[in-house]
Amino acid sequence: MRIIRSRTELATQVAQWRTEGATIGTVPTMGALHAGHLALVNALDGVVTRRIVTIFVNPIQFNNAADFQLYPRGLEADATLLQNTGKVDVLYAPDEADMYPPGFATRIMVSGLDGVLCGADRPGHFDGVATVVTKLLLQTGASVAAFGEKDYQQLCLIHRFVRDLDLPVRIIPVPTVREADGLALSSRNRRLTPPQREQASALPTALKTCITDLQTGKPVATCLQTCRENLKNHGFDVHYLDLRMGDTLKEAQTATPGTRLFVAASLGEIRLIDNMPVT
User: Fold this and answer.
1) pLDDT band at 111 (very low <50, low <70, confident <90, very high)
2) 208 marked among binding-site residues
3) What sign does the dihedral 87-93-98-99 (CA atoms) show?
4) 1 annotated as ligand-binding
5) For 18, what's the count of Cα atoms within 13 Å in the CB-facing half-sphere?
6) 159 counts as catalytic
7) What is the domain-level CATH number for residue 259?
8) Is 74 annotated as a binding residue?
9) N or C: which end of the chain has fewer CB within 10 A?
10) Domain that includes residue 19, residue range
11) What is the SS3 assignment for 194?
12) Which residues are listed for beta-alanine binding in this entry (predicted)?
């Protein structure tokens, strides 16, 4: 596995692969890798002949400077984890100056999908996501890219702009990978204190209970309110808890096939997100 830090060096490698007829798959990440990221790498098995994992903590998707500074980083450990898979050809880890050179002034905005859920909670976040993912897809020359369903809104957004911009990239969605107690794997979990980590297991449990209530036909508003109270009783500050359609992210008034439950909630300064299908 090669570690490439510059855009020009990556372009040279991609050009060589293309002359060899290679198909390139990419897994864009912000590092602090875990088993969920490795599931994305594994999702490319039998699909591509070359794999690139990117690591770039993207400053323009953070609307909180402290959150950006505290985001966990560890390139050496990440490189070792990827090397041990025996599947990754290149780890691409550009620096900020190479990704956003002086004078950079372009943003990609996906109207409609960016103003709800995490978009409403974190203004400008998805403009930053769409911009950096577009750049990474172009830089890596990928024909296939894997993204996790844990960041479901992000996945919907990427599907949308790939279609809208006619990018020749197939997006593979990968189911959420969870800990034994149900907590969705996330790089942010590393920042939880031991007591907070114990508290955090209440998040997926509350969602599952809410889904069971929805499936019995109880009113949506009642189920959501009960779930909010449940989370607050476990020490969470709930940013949002919504039932929405899985394809459009529009609010759902009833629990029907295709609906999903979405949540963002914080323990102290640590913001956790999750989502689950209702049926």
Assistant:
1) very high
2) no
3) positive
4) no
5) 10
6) no
7) 3.30.1300.10
8) no
9) C
10) 2-174
11) helix
12) 61
Res. 63: pLDDT tops 90 = no
pLDDT tens by residue, 20-52: 999 999 999 999 999 999 999 999 999 999 999
Q: Look up residue 8 and give its two tokens.
A: 């020009």
Angle value at C-alpha 136, between 83 and 49, nearest 5 degrees: 50
Q: Are residues 135 and 254 in the same domain?
A: no
* Residue 159 annotated as part of some ligand binding site: no
For the residues 205-230, what does the mean pLDDT come to?
97
DSSP H stretches of helix in 88-201: 96-99, 118-121, 125-140, 152-164, 194-200
pLDDT bracket for residue 279 (50, 70, 90) = confident
32 is in an annotated binding site: yes
Task: Say if residue 154's pLDDT is above 90.
Answer: yes
Q: Are residues 15 and 148 in the same domain?
A: yes
Per-residue pLDDT band at 211 (split at 50, 70, 90): very high
Q: What are the beta bridge partners of residue 52?
A: 26, 90
- From 37, 125, 234, 239, the catalytic residue: 37
Straight-line distance from the first to the last Cα atom of the chain, in angstroms, rounded to the nearest whole number: 41
Query: For residue 233, what pLDDT band results from cuts at 50, 70 and 90?
Result: very high
**pTM of the predicted model, to two decimals?**
0.96
Same-domain check for residues 162 and 214: no
- Asked whether residue 256 carries a pLDDT value surpassing 90, the answer given is yes
Average pLDDT, the chain: 97
3-state secondary structure 14-51: HHHHHHCCCCEEEEEECCCCCHHHHHHHHCCCCCCCEE
Sequence-separated (6 or more) residues with CB below 8 Å from residue 180? none
Count other Cβ atoms within 10 Å, centred on residue 125.
21
- Rounded to whole angstroms, the Cα distance separating 252 from 244 reads 5
For residues 207 and 249, state if they share a domain: yes
Report the C-alpha gap between 20 and 279 in whole angstroms. 45
Number of domains in the chain: 2
Amino acid 70: pLDDT = 87
